[in-house]
Amino acid sequence: MKNSAIDIKLLESLQDLFTKFGIKSLTMDDIARQLGMSKKTLYLSFSNKKDLVKKVVEHKVLDIECGMDMVCAEGDNAIDELMGIGKKMNESLSDAHPSIMYDIQKYYPQAWKVLLSHKEEFAFNKMLANLKRGIEEGLYRDNLNPEVITKAYMVMTEAMMANQLALPGKFNFQQLHLELMRYHIRGIANSKGREYLKNQFKEDN
User: DSSP string of the chain?
Assistant: First the structure.
């Protein structure tokens, strides 16, 4: 890392560029031109494009994790918390270029490792904690195995991501993710939880 404290505005500007144009299609010359700076200045903060992409992904992941922590702190119950997590994910991906995930996995392995670590550690633990909370609150079925269900949910998420990677742009990630969340909640909720969920969907509509 050439700069331990990279300007947040620069990272967010880069994130906006990738959201609009994708990653692979942009060269360092393109990026510098779009940002209105020289390539020499760009290289003061990043060793190369792979380093640049990794740092942008790290920033995005940190932003998502901070947002999810806030959602979890504000959720009145486990279902509200889980729906809030889903909404936060969809908001963060609302304008993403359809090829971004494909580009990262295929061409930027270090950045992909950051995403995998986020999924396997942070996201897994959030979903596990949510299941345990829902059982304690009497909204989820009490005969669930939280670790097994969490793993099953993560596998379904991976399958959804695989569709996006194999056929970038063919499926709307937000719609797929929303349906997966609904499917998941209805599967784990007891009668009390399903009734609460039904009322929440009515309010959202």
Answer: ---SS--HHHHHHHHHHHHHH-STT--HHHHHHHHTS-HHHHTTT-SSHHHHHHHHHHHHHHHHHHHHHHHHHH-SSHHHHHHHHHHHHHHHTTT--TTHHHHHHHH-HHHHHHHHHIIIIIIHHHHHHHHHHHHHTTSB-TT--HHHHHHHHHHHHHHHHHHHHHSTTTS-HHHHHHHHHHHHHHHHB-HHHHHHHHHHHHHH-
Q: In which band, very low, low, confident or very high, does the pLDDT at 38 lie, cut at 50, 70 and 90?
A: very high
* 40, 95 contact by CB (below 8 A): no
Q: 């996995």: which residue's tokens?
A: 105
Residue 22, sorted as left (phi over 0), alpha (psi -120 to 50) or beta, turns out to be: left
Amino acid residing at 28: M
User: Containing H/E element for 125?
Assistant: helix 124-136
Q: Residue 2 pLDDT > 80, yes or no?
A: no
Tell me the per-residue pLDDT of 67-101, one tens digit each, with 9 for 90 and over.
Answer: 999 988 888 999 999 988 888 877 776 667 767 88
Contact 146, 132 (CB under 8 A): yes
> Cα 188 to the chain's mean position, in Å?
22
Cα–Cα distance measured from residue 32 to residue 62, given in angstroms and rounded to the nearest whole number: 24
